[in-house]
DNA sequence: AACCTTCGCAACCGCAAGGAT
DNA sequence: CATCCTTGCGGTTGCGAAGGT
């Protein structure tokens, strides 16, 4: 199975990889390590573009890749992480180190998405399609009507509420780093919003959201040990995503605890 | 047996972010 | 500061296999 082989205008080979090409790539990387994909093909004696080599290595040749059928447990994991992270396949793949993002994405698109839809669950919101979907947005007027938390009713969506998630994440990052006062954080973030997006009503909602976020953030005591962090707590709605960050799926937000101040960690969640 | 449709998956493409110059 | 280059990501496509009629 695969694509037919052809050559582009620069004489670079496209389409299916041969066993000989795979061998050359593996031998070269084993000898010289990763990096400099642009010049790698020439040095490895391959008539491919660097991008193609990189993809082949990451999705197929790299050691430790698990191939073949997904187990029910893996499928459950994908659904769980998709509910939290949306279509961020690379982020999901980081939680499942033996599977590639491409593999996960393919399995989701060809199988899991349809399966959820058949069950009456919206694959994007992970909510029952028969009930009204509640998606938090900075434009929403009410912030007090979060649904009863349950692992399958998350409204963490990467599409319908991208703006609000980005806003809240940046705010959380700003608070977390304590580099700026709240007002300056807000000013910076609002400057990034499209002009028409910041009307008076939205400002009020943002202010309300800000207070809500701060109060939520304060629930995390910096003196807490990792084990004491809220985890799948039906009262708070927090889900401990890893040792240092919490997701509040009902507010499309991520909170990073204060004792971990490397903001790059938060990048995983930025939409 | 022939044809059509769906599935599964490897690979491509365009875009964006970040670093180097 | 601007431009170029590299790397990484997500959406989409192409195509053989499998299944259905």
UniProtKB/TrEMBL annotation:
Q: Does the keyword Ion transport apply?
A: no
What does the UniProt entry say about where the protein is found? Nucleus
Matches recorded under Gene3D superfamilies: Homeodomain-like (1.10.10.60)
Q: Which PROSITE patterns match?
A: HTH_MYB (PS51294), MYB_LIKE (PS50090)
Q: For the region Disordered, what residue ranges are annotated?
A: 122-159
Identify the keywords attached in UniProt to this record, alphabetized. DNA-binding, Nucleus, Repeat, Transcription, Transcription regulation
Which residues does the UniProt record annotate as the domain Myb-like?
Answer: 9-61, 62-112
Matches recorded under InterPro entries: Homeodomain-like_sf (IPR009057), Myb_dom (IPR017930), Myb_TF_plants (IPR015495), SANT/Myb (IPR001005)
Q: Which GO terms describe its biological process?
A: regulation of primary metabolic process; response to other organism
The principal location of this protein is nucleus
Biased-composition ranges, Low complexity, are: 129-159
- CDD domains recorded for this chain? SANT
Q: Which residues form the HTH myb-type domain?
A: 12-61, 62-116
Q: Name one Pfam family in it.
A: Myb_DNA-binding
A molecular function (GO) held by this record is: transcription cis-regulatory region binding
Record's GO cellular component terms: nucleus
Q: Which domain of life is it from?
A: Eukaryota
Quaternary structure note: Can form complexes with MYC2, MYC3 or MYC4.
Q: Spell out the protein name for this chain.
A: SANT/Myb domain
* Organism name: Arabidopsis thaliana x Arabidopsis arenosa
């Amino acid at each position: 199975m695969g694509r037919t082989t052809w050559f582009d205008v620069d004489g670079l080979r496209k389409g299916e990889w041969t066993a000989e090409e795979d061998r050359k790539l593996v031998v070269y990387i084993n000898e010289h390590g990763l990096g400099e994909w642009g010049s790698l093909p020439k040095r490895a004696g391959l008539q491919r573009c660097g991008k193609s080599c990189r993809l082949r290595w990451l999705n197929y040749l790299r050691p430790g890749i698990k191939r073949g059928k997904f187990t029910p447990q893996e499928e459950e994991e994908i659904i769980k992480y998709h509910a939290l992270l949306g279509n961020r396949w690379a982020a999901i793949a980081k939680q499942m180190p033996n599977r590639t993002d491409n593999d996960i994405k393919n399995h989701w698109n060809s199988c899991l998405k349809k399966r959820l839809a058949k069950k009456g669950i919206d694959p994007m919101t992970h909510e029952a399609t028969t009930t009204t979907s509640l998606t938090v947005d900075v434009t929403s007027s009410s912030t007090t009507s979060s649904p009863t938390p349950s692992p399958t009713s998350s409204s963490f969506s990467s599409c319908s509420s991208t703006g609000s998630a980005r806003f809240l994440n940046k705010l959380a990052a700003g608070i977390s780093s304590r580099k700026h006062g709240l007002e300056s954080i807000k000013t910076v973030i609002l400057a990034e919003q499209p002009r028409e997006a910041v009307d008076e009503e939205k400002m009020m909602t943002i202010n309300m959201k800000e207070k809500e976020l701060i109060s939520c953030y304060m629930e995390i005591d910096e003196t807490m040990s990792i084990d004491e962090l809220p985890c799948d707590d039906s009262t708070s709605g927090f889900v401990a995503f890893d040792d240092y960050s919490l997701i509040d799926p009902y507010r499309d937000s991520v909170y990073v605890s204060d004792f971990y101040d490397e903001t790059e960690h938060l990048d995983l969640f930025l939409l």
